[in-house]
Amino acid sequence: MMYETKELVKQLELYADAITGFATVQLVAFILLMTHGDCFTQNVLDGLWWAAGIGGIVNAMYFTLIWLCHRGENKTLGYKEILTADPIMHMVRAARYTIIGVDCVVTILLPFAIEHGVAQKQFHIYCKC
Question: Is the pLDDT of residue 124 over 90?
Fold first, then answer.
């Protein structure tokens, strides 16, 4: 029974890491597409509030999925055992939440920053739309 519990906890940790990694890769791809300065950028800037809202909702979903993984670990091991087991686990959990939080802020603010750059003539969009 103990082996199955440890395997479940490992799976939940792996899921939380995978979600965090996917969210970060998605952010990097979004940054690359937005800073490319083509029709994609123009389309996002035309629907600026949609892009910011959807980005915030998606990152909130990632945050929720990670929270559910951590909650599952707490229920499986017992929160008291997690507190005494490994202090590094708390740092890893905090790092996951921090990464998702930074991803969320950048996803929401990047389109506004690019729009500001376009208005200030510091960023140019080349779209033949």
Answer: no
- The answer to whether residues 45 and 121 touch, using CB atoms and an 8 Å cutoff, is no
Average pLDDT over residues 26-54: 92
Tokens 């939440």 locate to 97
Q: How far, in Å, CA of 121 to CA of 114, rounded?
A: 10
Cβ(33)–Cβ(74) under 8 Å? no
Using CA atoms, how far apart are residues 96 and 17, in angstroms rounded to an integer?
A: 7
| Number of other CB atoms surrounding residue 29 within 10 Å | 10
3-state secondary structure of 124: coil
CB atoms within 10 A of CB 100: 24
At 67-103, the pLDDT tens digits run 999 999 888 877 666 666 677 888 889 999 999 999 9
